[in-house]
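Incident log, entry 3
Record: DUF3887 domain-containing protein (165 residues)
Problem: checksum mismatch between cached and fresh output.
Input:
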Amino acid sequence: MKRWRWLLPIVTLVMLLPGCTSNAKYQEALDQNAALASQVADLNSQITNLSGQISTLQTNYEKISKVFPPRDFASLQELKDWLAKDKTDQQPAPATIEELYSRGLKMQLAALNDGFIISIDQEFVTDAFFFIFGIAVVNNEIWVWDIEDDDLYQPIGWGTVTRNS
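Fresh output:
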C-alpha cells in the first residue's frame, strides 16, 4: 500500500481541480450579476412609468364613461337643469339666421360634451320671422324649446318616440 501512497494526493488534486473557479469565470459571473441588476432596475422604472400611464388612462376612461355613449335625458327636470346651466338663451339677439343656427349647433355640441342627445332644427315663417329650436327626448316624449328662451313645450301631433330593442 505504501507504494500507492504517492498516488493519493494526485487523485485528490485531480478530483478537486474541476470544482475550482478561475478568476476570469468569477469576474464573468459578477458582470452578469451587475447586468441583471441593471435590467431589474430598468424594468422597475418601466413598471413605475406604466403604472402612472394606467392611472392616467383610468382617469380618462372614467371621464369618458360619464358622457359616452350619449343618451336622452332621464327626466324633464334633468333637461330643465341642463338648459338652466346652458347660457345660449342669455346671449344678445343675433343679427342673422346663420348666427342663431350656429348658436344652436354650439348648444348641441355642449349637450354632447355633457353626454346628452339633442337635435337642432329651424323654422322659417318669413325671411324676417324665424326661429331655431332644440329637440330632446325624455321618457319617449318629444320636448322642444326655442334656443333663445329655453321655454319647454310639447308640440301637438308629434307623438312619442318608439325604440326598437
